[in-house]
Amino acid sequence: MSLLAPLLLLGLLGLAAPLAAHLRGREEPRKIAFAALRFVRTGDEVVTMRRHLRDRLLLGLRLAALALLALALARPVSSGRARVAVLGEPHDAILLVDGSLSMSLRTDGMRALDGAADAAAAVVDALPPGSRVGLVTSDPSGPRLELSADLGLAREAIGEWVAGGAPRAGAWPLDGGLPVAAALLRADAGGRRRAIYAIGDPTARGLGSLPETAGPDTPVLPVPALGSLDALPPVPEHMSLDSVGWEPARDLDPRAVRVWGVVRRHAPGPVQPDNLRRVAVAMQLGGEEVARADVMVPLAGEARVEFTHTLIGDGPSPAALALVELQGDPLPGDEVRHFWLAGEDELDIVLVNGDPSEMRAHDEVFFLATALAAAPGRRLRVHGLAPDQLEARLREPRPLAGVDVVVLANVRAPAPDAATALTRRVEEGLGLLVTVGERVEASAYNDRLGELLPLRLREALVVGTAPGRTENRTEALAPANLAHPALRGLGDDLGLLGARTRRLFLLEPDAARASDVALSFTSGAPALVTRAHGRGRVALLTTSIDRDWSDLPLRPGFVPLVERLVAYLDASQQGAAGAVLRVGEPRILPGDRPATVISPTGERLAAVPDGHGEAVFKDTWLPGHYTVERGDDEPPLRFAVQVDPAESDTTLVTVAGPQIEGDEVLAAARYPRWRPLVLLVALLLLIESLVRWRLTTRRERARPG
């Protein structure tokens, strides 16, 4: 045990005050009228006061309260095991602190983020004299400090951040803040040694997401928020609602819907089917509970719960599933899932197969249809058409009525009149995805659909035949452009970086066209490029969507890519459940007029469109239901914001210990012990007040008359 402010123990001298008050305190003498005083000889009045202690219990309470207060002001702390070794010479250090939802987890009554604040203070206190320290958090809105010789600034900034409500409901992997931390070190390089002290939970999205170095001579030293790397505290069991979904149940009633949710019981170790826990799940509509069901969840496993509900009214209803009657769950915030519920809410997609095959791996739309079926969230109505059937639909009085997105998968260019009708439908708001293959001819597409294409087609290229690439047999994908509206909020590699392409289409550069590249190959050639046309959107994939030219459909990121791309192409996005976002993920609002977004708290926020005919609404930090008002002549848009279920996964992963070259200093954990003392002082003062009131009442009753 040690004291951070030992001089404040001088406050113990104040213990003399209550003692002196008790010794000097006396009641004023009272004069009592007595009839026989005339027979008593007059003399001088003598008042005697015996100096002895009275109300010793009251005195003891006051002395104890003052002593504990002085001790609390001295801020006693106890030192635990060393959490990390810091460089033993003066250096530049950046504290990288995890600010994601998982840091709300309580272990033995202490939040991980509070432990991270204590760990950061331990690192700062252990830094050698002459060091400088900066601060970065994985929360984009968290504090950020440049390097400073005043080491107390980082400690104060973390304390204010934690006291201000951190962590929020967002999901930010710890490695997301690593480039910012490295940039701060590079910006102020002066030949000194450098290090990044990463403080978080030892999970796959926390310390487990970090590399050992952030550049030459810049080690990344992991610091667990609680415990130490060689003695981590056990992860407490907690419950979460991982996902929800719904679908029409017309077999029961034309207005009936079937709502389901997946409840997960997080605990270390394998699933134990015999170890069951009863959990209550409530379904809410408009903030009111309409149904409740119990589900038995195995240890470290999951269970599905299902409700059937008949909707009343025409408009979408704000709905939610929530875990209820959870007493003291260690990780709050992941037990509710919000969504909009409506009788009809489906996205109509037409897949046009230009090269059907009996072999699934080579059928043009097999992988795409499979990915759409596996995509979570919004319900999709998928139709398949042959090219001649598409042209027939385009020649109808109302071409492709009710269709939201059309996919041309290795389809020959439509006839001129059908191409004109398709262009007009895109201008009205239809989404169009074009994927290439053997049947796509550049000249025909450029002549008939050149107005629609993000960039005109040049020629098909077999990888390895162009100058400078004779040594390559395949072309890999480069990291995705996460600033693209269709990919915002996804991970850095999307699970696509291992994709290999043997053949692709080159495009004609055109700076006059407002096109955006979402994916590109390592050679720089565009792989997925998009463009707005009228009220609709067009996407062009420069390789095939089957196995003929690429293994892209086999990659784990193919399903989320298809899900995001289809949602992006649905420019109208009228559906009630058409958009379910993660906390902090921006919402693209189509239209060239300002809109008003009503948040879950009822706050009205403005969304102003940019020059591309859309607004980017970024204030989605609060889970719940959002409504977008776009004017009297347009129906409102609705979307829901949910926490990322990945933040509920608190499974510990193996994190390698810090690798330090040269001298090192052990930074021991300091656990504050003054907080219980303050509570005890408040309790003693309350008892003192009760005792004083009781003694005063007793004396008043004991006085005569």
Task: Walk me through this protein's architecture.
With 705 residues, the chain is of the alpha+beta class. Helices cover 20% and strands 31% of the residues. The protein has eleven helices and 35 strands. Strands 18-17-19-20-27-26-25 form a seven-stranded mixed beta sheet. A five-stranded mixed beta sheet has the order 7-6-3-8-9, with helices on both faces. The radius of gyration is 35 Å and the shape is elongated. The chain starts with a strand and ends with a helix. The relative contact order is 0.12. The model has no long low-confidence stretch (mean pLDDT 84).
Mean pLDDT over the residues? 84
Largest sheet: 7 strands, mixed
Low-confidence stretches: none
* Strand fraction: 25-35%
| Computed CA radius of gyration, to the nearest angstrom | 35 Å
Helix content: 10-25%
- Output the structural class: alpha+beta
What spatial order of strands do you see in the largest sheet? 18-17-19-20-27-26-25
Q: Report, as a whole number of angstroms, the end-to-end distance.
A: 57 Å
Please state the oligomeric state of the protein chains shown: single chain
> Quick one: overall form?
elongated
Total of helices: 11
| Total E-strand runs | 35
Protein name: BatA domain-containing protein
Keywords: Membrane, Transmembrane, Transmembrane helix
Pfam family, one: BatA
Organism: Nannocystis bainbridge
